[in-house]
Design a protein that fits this description.
globular; three-stranded mixed beta sheet; alpha/beta; 15% helix; five-stranded mixed beta sheet
Length: 155
Amino acid sequence: REMRANYRDYFTGGMGAESVRDLLEAMDLQHGAEGKLQVPVVTRIPAFLMGAGIGSTTTMSGDYDIMTQDHEANQKYGIDRLRFGDLVLIEDHDNTHGPHYRQGAVSIGVIVHSDSFTSGHGPGVTVIMSADEDTLEGIIDPDANIANYMNKIKR
């Protein structure tokens, strides 16, 4: 509450579903020709690069990490260029009841912390949506960062 009172013009703080709803409304998401919800993302992360946090009961109050020990994969998937706030799509990961591998599922999240040299760790992703790939798709957009939507959020 103090952050809202003192920094409303500079920062929108919030927790949980209300903040995610506001973000999604500000993004003005559309449905494609096949009816899939289209979400802008900076990159697509293959399932095999997800590490610390898999098997947790939820990532809705935390995050799980993209492993960065493979330098070629970092370049190939743009992991070495990720910024705080970037939206990413994680392939074949279902986060409905905590993060786990499920072929055909997709999860979209926000980069919330930076890289790590510890095995299994790397940039952290807080998931904001998860569904089957036949209902949700990522559209590559280098500007898909929550900072670009924050000025549209009114509280």
